[in-house]
Design brief:
Radius of gyration: 25 Å
Strand order of the largest sheet: 4-3-2-1-5-6
Distance between the termini: 68 Å
Number of strands: 8
Oligomer: single chain
Length: about 190
Amino acid sequence: MIPLKRLIALFPLITLLAIGCVHTRPEGHDEALTLEQLNDRFAQKNATILREGGQEVKAFHVRVGADTTWWSEGGIHHQMPSQEVVSVTMRNHGRGFFEGMGVGLLLGAIGGGIVGFAGGDDECDQWCFYSKAEEKAGLFALFFGILGVPTGGIIGAATGSKERYLIGPSLPQPPQDQILSIPDPVSDAPRRE
């Protein structure tokens, strides 16, 4: 049997590490998006553009076109060929908070239950509230689950939930007869591609 004190000491560390990693969404999305849908998701939001060669650029209001990608950085408008953009990543700290809370609750409850069962039954003559392993598991699951909610929320809010959109060669190409209207970041006038 594993000593109960060791399990209790290691559990918060394992929970913190798991919460920080688990709530990040996986890279890419299963759904195919048109340029218009992609640009709607990037509109008026902060993002990080990953360029070929690994250079990251902090950006605001990214607009992806079939040939050119535009964005603002520090009030200055920039553009580059869309084929040089590997991905665009956005972080949502509010969603990260709620996802972290949920993961913290689950990890806390499961870990607390394991710690309670691992301690085994206690022999007690009097004044014992919880002497059976099942009772301790339920109490520890409740305690660590409640403790995991704010811990997970804080870690989730700090790291944010990531959404990464792959661009470059995977860029959806519109049909030849479709004309896209993409705002020019310099003049905000519609531009035809």
